[in-house]
C-alpha cells in the first residue's frame, strides 16, 4: 500500500505563490505516475499536473506556464510550485499516485488553497 501526506496549502493574494508537497511512504517502488488534482466548490475534480515515472509531464491548460510539478526521489516527495496564482485557482488540492503493483489509485487528504483578489 501507499500512504500520502500533503502540506503547503494556505491563503495567498492574487499574483502570489505557494508550493504544495506530498510525501509518499509504503510501496513507493510501485508508483508509476504522480500528480495533483483540484476540486473547487460545486465543480468536479480536475487534473492540474501529472508526471510519469520517466519524468514526462502534463498540465491543465489553465495552469500552463504558472504551475510546475517536480519530484524528489530521495525524499519520496512530489511538489507543485504554483506561481501567479489567480482567484480561480481556489480549490482543495489532492495529491495522487498510481501504483502498478496494487493496480489502484491513491489520494492524499487534500489541502486547501485560497487565492484572494
Textual characterization of the structure:
The structure is a single chain. The chain has about 120 residues and is mainly beta. The protein has no helices and 11 strands. Strands 2, 4, 5, 6, 9, 10 and 11 form a 7-stranded mixed beta sheet that branches. Strands 1-3-8-7 form a 4-stranded antiparallel beta sheet, with no helix packed on it. A hairpin with a 4-residue loop joins strand 5 and strand 6. The protein starts with a strand and ends with a strand.
Short recap of the structure:
This protein is 0% helix and 59% strand.
Distance between the termini: 40 Å
Helix content: under 10%
Mean pLDDT: 95
From the spread of the alpha carbons, the general shape counts as globular
Beta-strand segment tally: 11
Low-confidence stretches: none
Structural class: mainly beta
How big a fraction of the residues is strand?
Answer: over 45%
In sequence order, what are the helices and strands, one letter per element?
EEEEEEEEEEE
Helices, by number, come to 0
Major beta sheet summary = 7 strands, mixed
Write the layout of secondary structure elements.
Layout: E1 2-7, E2 10-13, E3 18-26, E4 31-39, E5 46-52, E6 57-59, E7 67-72, E8 77-82, E9 91-99, E10 104-107, E11 111-116
Parallel strand pairs: 2-11
Antiparallel strand pairs: 1-3, 3-8, 4-5, 4-9, 5-6, 7-8, 9-10, 9-11
Keywords:
single chain; 117 residues; mainly beta; four-stranded antiparallel beta sheet
